[in-house]
Amino acid sequence: MIFASIKFRLTALFLAISFVTLSGLGIFLYYQLESITIGAIDSHLHSEVQLIAGLVEIEEGRVKVDLHEIAVGDYAVPLSGHYFQVIEGKPSGGDQGVSGGRVAADVRSASARVVARSASLERVDARLPFGELHFEGVYKTVDGPAKKPLRLGEQTFVIGGRTVTIQASESLKDTQLLLASYRNLLLMILPAVFFLSAVAVFLLARFSLASLNIFSAKVGAITEQNLGDRLEVKGLPSELLPLAENFNTMMSRLEESFEGQRRFLSDASHQLRTPAAVIKGYCDVTLGRDRDGAEYRESLEKINDAVVRMTGVIERILESARVEGGSHGGPGFRELDLMEIAVDAVRLLKASARERGVTISITGDSQKVSGDRLRLVEAVSNVIDNAIKYNREGGEVLIELSARGGYAVLTVDDSGAGIEEKARGRIFERFYRSDETSAEVTGSGLGLSIVRSILQAHGGDVECESRDAAGTRFILRLPLA
């Protein structure tokens, strides 16, 4: 949908902000222009009123005005909009201004009379509206002769004991034309600015988001067939750089996971192929001709051994899947004694150790941990079982418990031949078995992988230390309860 588009949202947001900002600025400037022009007119009218006030004289008790100095120019042109008027006395009623030849009743009353006016008024027998006395001077917009708007300034003076009001006005025609032109200019410019801004912002957003489109296309092109491909972070905008780096990190983990699955399937098929081939071979040979009961029994025993081995591999695979799938969970954990777990594991493997003449000893103190008892017994048993199987005849296995750095530590030392350095880094991989151990001892290669998964699920870990011909040490760590 267009409303969900980032480009649309950016454009709409920019236009909304631009509309409010430019409209507000335009209105502000309009009223500022009006205030400045009206202020200039008022200043001019103030000067005119003061000038006329200086020309008013009182002779023989009468108010007289020498008009020769000012009755020129626009003041002499009928209905020019430039008028002045001198009134003696006080108004007798409300402001009843006239235009054209009609005269205000208060101006022609006995209490107030026009003693002088500009030729622009006198020639059409018109007067300016007069209603109140203003000793401070006032400025207002009124309708003058011919119903044309005027800016009127008036001030009342006391000259020679007489009350004299002087009025001067100026047409607002030019001011209104200026304001109308400015208003029309705004109405033409603002839509054009909005349109150009919308286009510019849209193109800018499109250009800025082009990298995101390329990013999306590259991500879409990555499949399980090319998991090794990575996004090129060079040249990406800084906003997309963390996303690209995190995506590449995720792809690396995903590639490792897929590669692990491939290895798992390959190794599992290899582990299952051997017993399956044994079963198939004995079946073919046995069924090739008639045999006596002893031969059939021998064949069935071989087939049974292969089935047992296959079943063991399958159980290990399922166990590995359950552990890595988190089926053990954490909510069922309870406080356990790691010493008791080690003792149980030794008890389970006592017969196996006796067969090889291996002695097992446990030292150290009880350590409290939290976890799943069956899983932890399995993990410890797997490590001890390896220590027995890969030990020398008549060797020994030393188990020690201690606490270090907030962890319960269980170490298992054997007196076997040790593990080669090149194999040491891979022994916790599923199905991994070194060439030497594969030839000497049967196994699935899943035991240590399961050990690490169980310990990591409990917040711990396992590591291996070994020296050629000097035995192997496995160190299991679990958080103290």
UniProtKB/TrEMBL annotation:
Its EC number is 2.7.13.3. The chain crosses the membrane at residues 12-31, 185-205. It catalyses: ATP + protein L-histidine = ADP + protein N-phospho-L-histidine. The keyword Kinase applies. GO terms for molecular function: phosphorelay sensor kinase activity. Pfam families: HAMP, HATPase_c, HisKA. It is found in: Membrane. It is a multi-pass membrane protein. SMART domains: HAMP, HATPase_c, HisKA. InterPro entries: HAMP_dom (IPR003660), HATPase_C_sf (IPR036890), HATPase_dom (IPR003594), His_kinase_dom (IPR005467), HisK_dim/P_dom (IPR003661), HisK_dim/P_sf (IPR036097), Sig_transdc_His_kin-like_C (IPR004358), TCS_sensor_his_kinase (IPR050428). CDD domains: HATPase, HisKA. Residues 267-481 form the Histidine kinase domain. PROSITE patterns: HAMP, HIS_KIN. It is an enzyme of class 2 (transferase). Residues 206-259 form the HAMP domain. GO terms for cellular component: plasma membrane. Keywords: Kinase, Membrane, Phosphoprotein, Transferase, Transmembrane, Transmembrane helix, Two-component regulatory system. This is histidine kinase. It comes from hydrothermal vent metagenome.
